[in-house]
Specification:
Blueprint lengths: L14 H4 L2 E2 L4 E2 L3 E3 L13 H13 L4 E7 L24 H8 L4 E6 L12 E2 L13 E2 L2 H20 L4 E6 L4 H6 L14 H19 L4 E9 L8 H14 L3 E6 L19 H7 L7 E3 L6 H9 L5 E4 L1 H5 L3 H6 L17 H5 L28 E5 L3 H12 L3 E5 L9 H4 L8 H15 L2 E3 L14 E4 L3 E3 L12 E3 H5 L8 E5 L3 H11 L10 H8 L22 E5 L15 H10 L3 E3 L2 E7 L2 E6 L2 E5 L3 E4 L3 E3 L4 H6 L4 E3 L11 H14 L1
Parallel strand pairs: 3-4, 3-12, 4-5, 5-8, 6-7, 8-9, 9-10, 10-11, 11-12, 13-14, 13-16, 14-15, 16-27, 18-25, 19-20, 19-25, 20-21
Antiparallel strand pairs: 1-2, 17-26, 22-23, 23-24
Helix pairs in contact: 2-3, 4-6, 6-7, 13-15, 13-21, 17-19
The structure holds flavin-adenine dinucleotide, NADP nicotinamide-adenine-dinucleotide phosphate and iron/sulfur cluster.
Amino acid sequence: MSPVMGQPADPTLYPHLLAPLDLGFTTLRNRVLMGSMHTGLEDRAADFPKLARYFAERAEGGVALIVTGGFSPDIAGWLKPFGGKLSWRWETRRHRPVTDAVHAHDAKICLQLLHAGRYAYHPLQVAPSRLKAPINPFTPRALRARGVERTIDAYAHAAKLAREAGYDGVEIMGSEGYLINQFLSARTNRRQDRWGGDVLQRMRFATEIVRRVREAAGHDFILIYRLSMLELVPDGSGWDEIVQQARAIEAAGATLLNTGIGWHEARVPTIATSVPRAAFAGVTAKLRPHVKLPLVATNRINMPDVAERVLAAGGADMVSMARPLLADPHWVAKARAGTPARINTCIACNQACLDHVFANRTASCLVNPRACAETELNYFPAAAPLRIAVVGAGPAGLACATVAAQRGHRVVLFDAADAIGGQFNLARRIPGKEEFNETLRYFGQRIAETGVDLRLSTPVTADDLAGFDVVVLATGVRPRAIDIPGHDHPKVVGYVDVLEGRVVPGARVAIIGAGGIGFDVGEFLVEGHGPSPSLDPAAWMREWGVDPSFERPGGLVTAAPSPPAREVWLLQRSPGRPGARLGKTTGWIHRSTLKAKGVQMLGGVAYLGVDDAGLRIRVDDSEQLLPVDHVVVCAGQEPRRDLLDALQAAGRVVHLVGGADVAAELDAKRAIAQASALAARL
Ligand code: FAD
Ligand code: NAP
Ligand code: SF4
């Protein structure tokens, strides 16, 4: 856990993290690599000024080496139609402002070369063999031998162009199941020519790319190779093959070896919030004795103490972080100043970054709505300071109060509760959501830094708000009551009482409502009393079937989830599979977790009533009695805006943000973004 606020600054906290790294022909100023992450800004030339500003803020914030989102070396390798590509000289022009902006802050930047292969979301896709990916509707065309040669040349040409565009190097994306991985793996490479067959033949494509890129771009050019060190797919590479690949890539001329964990089609989470911090650092460390190249560790490294521990253990020479630098562009500067409590920590929710990208929207960040909007959302000093009352210290109120105070307004923040956080105080109790504590720590720190006058345990009425120029109601939501026979039976309880521990449900429980909160409550109920697997890497690997020795093919063994603490039914009225509306990149994890614990998930349910025998329901025209001890209601929420009418009647300037504005489809991403945007305008 990161140090608490108020701890004195200690710049010597992270000696390994902040040490320079000599690459021979150039030196990196510290051990932080900003990992490649597609933001959507790479895909349109018109967005490159925004991309330049986005990277410039991270360079200014102290990161040593940035890797861009993926650019394909040719059209077939586009991630999606007209996605980022670098294959023509005229395309280099748009990159110059990006590389100049980064160099102006003494950081270095590499362009990632990513050929999507059979993961490309368009009909022009190619692959080593004609095998459709389970996560893509398109079937690839198998490359002919000449096509393979042309593709390798395209990589070399793109690297040369990257150099002309001012990049310090390239990263060759050899993992996550993209084209190079598809050549490497017997699972996807069924070729009989010199590019398929035994491991040496399958490796040839990767090593030829590295060799020809090195030849084309010169020896004083950083060449990072992202090596698939743990594939997490059935029939994936075993450890011996991975070591062989690493040595071949080293011999072919790479400068740095970055770690790739899992293919996109893997059914083991690799970066979600429920994955323990640095869970996969052991994979990189296992490779350490086998190569001389500097190694980069990745995945769920989000705070300096975690990064320092990984580096100090000697298993890696750098750490790669992508999302943590979306969340806080000044992450490195804050580590350097010895003030980690000031870091806005990435909570690994994926809600505004990956979920956006997969929905074809520009990435941003739940905890930092300025990410990728640096040219649009700015917190400039206010023209005239106002007296602002913010009622409610949930995510919306916290964001609004701290941004307004940062801009120079005089802000009083009220909450009826005795702690800041609103519903985040419930979310953080869910096993696997421990990272939400970090957001509360960060906002606590921001309140102190910006001089917000915080008044806890203060339920506010309209009369208390006289004397303020502006009132912001961030009073959140109240849980929706249900109207079914027996709704007032003692078995029927609300999720707040359960999560706050006022009710301890019995051995059999039905949950009414299968939205995000219903799923979370399900996880809370089935988890036992021990530490959450997200805090115990060994237990987490058992739950998900990851081979702790990383030796087996694909790094997989049979999953052995611990038995559920209760028998649970998760119900919804709408037809179809519960959880279909959960986050694109994380919904499957919640569904798998509950399935592994035997939770029965039913859609199309009619609630007939609750009585001493349990919950009576009708599904598919047949009536059933669920013999439960408790029924936990997670049926959504209604806005809480009791103060609005009185304030408006008194002619006050009132704004609504977060759940107080709209409770339907509310999440913290919307609450924080809306509140920050309002505070930027006041
Ligand atoms: P709230 O968080 O509800 O805060 C409102 C605050 O106002 C409260 O602290 C309350 O005490 C205070 N208040 C109300 N009336 C008064 C008054 N008259 N005087 C003083 N104070 C008052 N969202 C996500 O994006 N991702 C998740 O993974 C996620 N997980 C969740 C898990 C759980 C178990 C729960 C319950 C919620 C989760 N959410 C998640 C939802 C998220 O927490 C909410 O969307 C968010 O908290 C809404 O923020 P808000 O500031 O609008 O309201
Ligand atoms: P929600 O997603 O709107 O789900 C409410 C559930 O209650 C639905 O399953 C709905 O399904 C059911 N319901 C609605 N009205 C009902 C009624 N009158 N009687 C019985 N059932 C009813 O809301 P939530 O689960 O409370 O979550 C609130 C918000 O928090 C969500 O929008 C979500 O974005 C956010 N959140 C996010 C996460 C995350 O991991 N990203 C986690 C938790 C919460 P039917 O109408 O089909 O019955
Ligand atoms: Fe991290 Fe969530 Fe922000 Fe993505 S949206 S960078 S996962 S905090």
